[in-house]
Design a protein that fits this description.
Layout: H1 8-30, E1 38-40, H2 50-58, E2 65-67, H3 83-92, H4 95-103
Parallel strand pairs: 1-2
Length: about 110
């Protein structure tokens, strides 16, 4: 959340969300299931901007981080589509984002490789 402007109320909700995530990861580990070490993206909901994604990527902790994103294209009559999803596509496919991943040694992966 560092470097991303959020209200005090939203910051408190995100801190609670983080605590729930830590508890869930511990429970998954006890059950012998694998999960990412960290979770990012909730602070960017509804305010995704290239500079916010860049700030988040530059501050990734060591380990595997799940980045919540929902890129897509506008579909008529579908509430979960539209400009915010298209902006995510634009940011995630931007050559500058790819350079930042490479320069930062960030490797894209999937849950099957955990």
């Amino acid at each position: 959340m560092e470097g991303i402007p959020v209200s005090a109320e939203r910051r408190a909700a995100l801190a609670e969300y983080e605590a729930l995530g830590r508890a869930a990861r511990q429970e998954l580990g006890r059950a012998g299931l694998r999960s990412a070490d960290h979770f990012r993206g909730a602070a960017l909901a509804h305010q995704l901007r290239p500079e916010a994604v860049e700030a988040m990527l530059r501050r990734l902790p060591e380990g595997i981080t799940e980045y919540m994103t929902h890129p897509g294209y506008a579909e008529s009559g579908h509430d979960f589509s539209g400009p915010p999803r298209e902006e995510e596509v634009r940011i995630l496919t931007d050559p500058g984002t790819r350079r930042l991943l490479g320069d930062g040694g960030i490797e894209l992966t999937h849950f099957g490789r955990l």
